[in-house]
Design a protein that fits this description.
single chain, elongated, five-stranded antiparallel beta sheet
Length: 332
């Protein structure tokens, strides 16, 4: 009786064997890719371990004689295995790294905290502080209304952030064109630093005393371009009950429109409409206003997020009067 020898795998079983090995190599390649792309997550380690250990173990348990056939393949099988492993890993990683990936959606712009208005009007300077820390990269907007004075230079703050006028400071936007009174100014800060911030607005000195004739509002938004957010401006003045800053043209989604308005108020203190609130335009949020023209300069501000299109930010008053409104469009 002749001794028995191990039977060489048939061509059919060899094809099936190497198909299993090829699949294993692809799985390992995916595991390596996962580690390369997401090395900071525990899921990548789990994926690699599953690919490198669980898959071949499960295959050898499910397919009778698989390990025996691998051993019978000898050096040639190991070489083929190594080649398939290297080639499949390279091909899979090159494909996954080179294919286009969907860009992460930018965060939606958000009003980060409740806005703050001046505690009292002034003819010399106003100081206003955020109640909570401002985050790095926030967009800070400073809106100012005055009766007769004007801003000296630009606003300053605790962290020496750089403030830029949205309007031309050499061309004041008056509500009362004849008397050169009641006007608005709008500023924004770029590359903002984090922390509890106090903003100071200084006014040019005037000869006659107009006590409590100013108002300063500060607003912090997230989700906008931190270094170059300004896109467009719009400003207007008139005499009606519907202040309108003019047209702003948005070119992308999630742009922010911010508007500030002022009006001359009513001279008759017994009029029931005196010091009544302004209403925001349709689709706008009016987070803060100061309607009391007897103790402060009137102030109202609104904002909204927009999609591409043409917008005319506006307010509605309880009476017809001279007004001025200024708006700006900020982008992501």
């Amino acid at each position: 009786m002749q001794p028995s020898h191990p039977q060489a795998p048939t061509p059919k079983s060899s094809v099936f064997l190497w198909a299993c090995i090829f699949g294993f190599c692809i799985a390992v390649g995916l595991g390596i890719y996962t580690i390369i792309k997401h090395i900071s997550t525990g899921y990548s380690v789990i994926a690699f371990l599953l690919a490198a250990l669980a898959i071949p173990f499960a295959a050898m348990q499910a397919i009778p004689g698989l390990w025996k056939r691998v051993k019978q393949s000898g050096k040639i099988g190991l070489r083929v295995f190594a080649v398939i492993f290297v080639v499949s890993s390279i091909v899979m990683n090159v494909y996954l790294l080179a294919r286009p990936h969907a860009a992460a959606s930018p965060p939606i712009p958000t009003l980060q905290q409740e806005p703050v208005l001046s505690p009292v009007g002034s003819t010399t300077f106003d100081q206003v502080s955020f109640e909570n820390p401002v985050d790095v990269g926030n967009l800070i907007i400073v809106a100012v209304t005055q009766f007769r004075t004007s801003v000296k230079g630009v606003p300053t703050d605790t962290f020496h952030n750089r403030y830029i006028p949205a309007l031309d400071p050499t061309k004041p936007l008056y509500a009362n064109r004849d008397a050169s009174t009641d006007y608005v100014e709008l500023y924004y800060a770029v590359t903002v630093k984090a922390g509890y911030d106090t903003i100071t607005v200084q006014f040019t000195p005037i000869k006659e005393s107009d006590e409590e004739d100013s108002n300063v509002g500060i607003f912090a938004f997230s989700g906008l371009n931190s270094s170059a957010p300004f896109d467009q401006k719009a400003f207007n003045y008139g005499n009606s009950d519907t202040p309108n800053a003019g047209d702003l043209v948005a070119k992308q989604a999630h742009e922010l429109i911010f508007v500030v308005g002022v009006d001359c108020g009513l001279d008759n203190p017994s009029d029931p409409r005196v010091n009544t609130d302004a209403a925001p335009g349709r689709g706008y949020t009016l987070p803060e206003q100061q309607p009391n023209s007897a103790t402060y300069e009137r102030f109202y501000a609104e904002y909204r997020l927009v999609t591409p299109g043409v917008y005319s930010p506006n307010f509605t008053l309880q009476y017809a009067v001279c007004w001025a409104a200024a708006g700006a469009l900020f982008k992501q």
